[in-house]
Amino acid sequence: MNLNQITISSLDTRTSVRFYKKLGLKLIVDALPRYARLECPDGDATFSIHHTEDLIINKGVTLYFEVENLPKTVSDLQQKGIIFNSEILEQSWLWHEVHLKDPDGNPIIIYHAGKNRKNPPWRIN
């Protein structure tokens, strides 16, 4: 089994698409303002945005995007006007991450974990 895509709801899909394109995702399906699908620049995962009139932010869901060079990514995104809610944090689970929110308030973490993403020292066999 492989995770194919994540779909989020948005009050303003056009604004959300512009935001996620700034993050580096590529628009591959444009059915705006109702729906859009983007693909991640690495791997096979896709990300879609569906229009809604009633937005409920689920505080239990966080979107994670992994990058190879977190400081460079943060710098590049800041130059594009992306606002972060934290500095780069070094976490006890061996990830480096930075926090932000999308235009609809969905929490996002951009991080680098490398081998520790799936194989931390405490992984069970």
From TrEMBL:
First and last residue of the signal peptide: none
Domain Glyoxalase/fosfomycin resistance/dioxygenase: 3-108
Protein name: VOC family protein
